[in-house]
Specification:
single chain; mainly beta; Neuraminidase; Immunoglobulin-like; 2 domains; four-stranded antiparallel β-sheet; PQQ-dependent sugar dehydrogenase; Quinoprot_gluc/sorb_DH_b-prop
């Protein structure tokens, strides 16, 4: 196991390259600023792709709504089935939904969390299950949360593991609109649990899994390195939303649709600590998977949310301001591949998008559903550029609350990543010296990546 961990660190330190992407046939291209983004198909003939997650094994993990979980080789596109969950009920919009993955005790064994609908005594329900992945198989399913009221629509559900090793889970209102405001109900909420299913002691309501309330059907969830959390949410016939998620806040549904701009809404918002959305769409677009992009491969997308859209069949870039408190532009791409539901970003800056044309809401093409790869094929990784010519100092190391980075030149980006490659902190210092605030990071090993005009370099950092 020690050799595997060291080998993984060496690959990350070599520029986060885990094998070159095969040059699949080009389906189309489009510009993002001065960058040409190439679109190709990584995998085809799937059935309603619901989730894509970049795994700790450097494979793409995929759920399909019928109950199948697979690992997809990002270089060859080979789809390796892992398990088909027998008690998944796929009906209407229900079935196997969101997934999240985190390491357990060793690099070769980790936990896989999934949420899905099932039938209990003739009634449709929803549950959260944790599996252990080891030796190529998922085993030891443990139900962390079950018996959630469900229906064939408005089930959510995305999962997100936070750096403090708690889990967020979105739930829809299951067409029981008043339950979104009922703190005793699990519907129409974002829930927060420990990874063993227990309730965190610092949740907004003591003894409750509730993290936020007043949601209709949130189907996208992501966190930025600065800790900001964002969700996409389906509105009724108006006001699809992108929300900044803040613990304990109320998001208004069903009294408030979109912003607090009607008399009854303004009264409710003032009395109930309602957080207004960052942006809305009327007519609705059906927003789904949400990811954060901050990689030099496609500079025009840096600092943006990328949103997979179902009804309007597009990928939308949502450019954030410096603090992440506002969306300043919305730009649409990828409008010719039908319904888009799932999205993930690799450590090498490639974007993987899953289509959802076999979900009963569209006419599928002959190779649907597909995982599409969006990439800048002209981007050269640091290994090929000779990253050894670009170095920086990092001290103290080990560090506790903060560390100092001394750069060889200004205008560099700093990214701190965990050993899964997930960014946990980003910084763009003005000069050649920067201070990393480590107070919110758990003790352990991290990788500090510095990239400037002259190259890129990575160093290991130990946080005590």
């Amino acid at each position: 196991m020690r050799f595997l961990r060291n080998a993984t660190l060496a690959l990350w330190a070599g520029g986060l390259s885990f094998g070159a992407q095969a040059q699949a046939p080009v389906l189309t291209t489009f510009p993002v600023g001065a960058t040409t983004v190439t679109v190709s198909a990584l995998a085809t003939n799937r059935n309603t792709i619901w989730e894509l997650v970049w795994g700790p094994d450097n494979f793409i993990w995929m759920t399909e709504r019928s109950g199948r979980i697979s690992r997809v080789n990002p270089t060859t596109g080979q789809v390796v089935p892992v398990v088909t969950i027998a008690d998944v009920t796929e009906t209407g919009e229900s079935g196997l939904l969101g997934m999240a993955i985190t390491p357990a005790a060793t690099p070769a064994a980790y936990w896989v969390f999934v949420v899905y609908n099932y039938t209990d005594q003739g009634q449709l329900k929803e549950k959260l299950v944790r599996y252990t992945y080891a030796d190529g198989a998922l085993a030891n399913p443990l139900v962390l949360l079950g018996n959630i009221v469900a229906t064939t629509t408005h089930s959510g559900s995305r999962l997100l593991i936070l750096p403090d090793r708690t889990l967020l889970m979105t739930t829809g209102d299951a067409q029981l609109q008043p339950q979104a405001q009922n703190t005793a109900s699990l519907n129409g909420k974002i829930l927060r649990l420990n990874l063993d299913g227990t309730i965190p002691a610092n949740n907004p309501i003591a003894g409750s899994r509730l993290y936020t309330l007043g949601h209709r059907n949130p189907q996208g969830l992501t966190q930025l390195p600065n800790g900001n959390i964002y969700s996409s949410e389906h509105g009724p016939n108006n006001d699809d939303e992108i929300n900044k998620i803040e613990a304990g806040r109320n998001y208004g549904w069903p009294t408030v649709e979109g912003n607090c701009n009607l008399p009854a809404e303004m009264t409710f918002c003032a009395a109930n600590n309602v957080r207004e959305p960052l942006t809305t769409w009327t007519p609705t677009i059906a927003p789904a998977g949400l990811a954060y992009y901050d990689h030099p491969a496609i500079p025009g997308w840096r600092g943006s949310l990328l949103l997979a859209v179902l009804k309007d069949s597009k990928l939308t870039q949502l450019t954030l301001n410096n603090t992440g408190s506002a969306i300043i532009t919305r730009t649409d791409f990828l409008t010719t591949f039908g319904r888009l539901r799932a999205i993930c970003v690799s450590p090498e800056g490639r974007v993987y998008v899953g289509t959802s044309n076999r979900d009963g809401r569209n006419t599928p093409g002959p190779t649907d559903d597909r995982i599409l790869v969006l990439e800048n094929r002209m981007y050269v990784t640091s290994t090929a550029r000779g990253a050894g010519s670009f170095s920086f100092e990092l001290f103290p190391n080990p560090a506790s609350r903060q560390a100092t980075v001394q750069l060889p030149a200004p205008n560099a980006w700093l990214t701190v990543r965990d050993l899964l490659g997930r960014p946990v902190l980003t910084l763009h210092p003005n000069g050649t010296t920067a201070t990393l605030n480590l107070a919110n990071l758990r003790p352990g090993s991290y990788l500090v990546q510095a990239e400037g005009p002259n190259g890129k370099s990575t160093r290991k950092l130990v946080v005590e």
